[in-house]
Amino acid sequence: MAFLAIDIGNTRLKWSMFEAAHPGAPLLAHGAEFLDHIERLAEGPWADLPPATSMLGCVVAGDAVRRRAEEQLHERFDCAARWVVPTTAEAGITNGYDHPTRLGADRWVAMIGARHRMLGAGPARPMVVVLIGTAVTVEAVDASGKFLGGLILPGHGIMLRALESGTAGLHVPTGEVVEFPTNTSDALTSGGTYAIAGAVDRMVAHLRERTGMEPVRYMTGGAGWKMAPSMSSEFELVESLIMDGLLVIAEDRAKR
Fold it and tell me: What is the dihedral of CA 16, 21, 25, 29, to 10 degrees?
């Protein structure tokens, strides 16, 4: 009854195989491939996996990449490809987006995973959920589970490339995050980091003012570990938040 969870972002395809399709199921294997290397999955990392009887994924990279992933899935496993499309409500989260289906699937799944994690630790509270990847998203969810809205801003790499292409003389190595940068490399890295941190802090303040409660804060994504030390308030870094959300959705759909 193995379950395969897939998260296709803008840069990489991340996958995890679990013993079953429910939160807390034992993890059997996991990995990641850059999108240029998707075609090696069936004969490479997936070759020795046990048969998957079901899968669920989220994809933001577009239909062409999704189809390439489905080809690998069907080559290796005998299960249907199922992809999360945000709706008006699912698994405890109500979608407050103007056009619910236009919300990024990864954002939707991460919020669902975060709420499940929060309720497992204590009473319901508002949440700020941050995904640090090629792009950065900052979501606000109230204590009832309503998604109030979120921010989208460029990640570190996009910021640096924009500065390199739009200015002269900024082709420098990545620097360190310091309070008072005294070289261009550190100035670029610190500027991008603090820009993201400032946006996150603003959303935390907005949600605190809106709800009158101190929000729970979660951070996930490939570059989350780089950002967490630079935040002005404490965030719980959860590497598996999207995979957790896929498990919650899979169980919720099976029950229904």
Answer: -20
- Taking phi over 0 as left and psi of -120 to 50 as alpha, with beta for the rest, 62 belongs to left
Output the furthest CA–CA distance in the chain (Å, rounded).
Answer: 58
Q: How many Å apart are CA 151 and CA 136, to the nearest integer?
A: 8
Contact assessment for residue 35 and residue 65, using Cβ atoms and an 8 Å cutoff: yes
Q: Which residue has the higher pLDDT, 228 or 248?
A: 248
Long-range CB pairs of 117-120, under 8 A, 24+ apart, other chains included: 117/218, 117/238, 117/241, 117/244, 118/216, 118/218, 119/92
From 106, 186, 201, 252, the catalytic residue: 106
Q: Is 106 a catalytic residue?
A: yes
User: pLDDT tens-digit profile of 138-173?
Assistant: 999 999 999 999 999 998 888 888 877 777 666 666
What tens digit of pLDDT does each residue of 48-67 get? 999 999 999 999 988 999 99
Give Cα 171 distance to the centre of its chain: 29
Q: Which residues pair with 4 in a beta bridge?
A: 17, 55
Phi and psi at residue 128, in whole multiples of 5°? Answer: -115, 125
pTM: 0.92
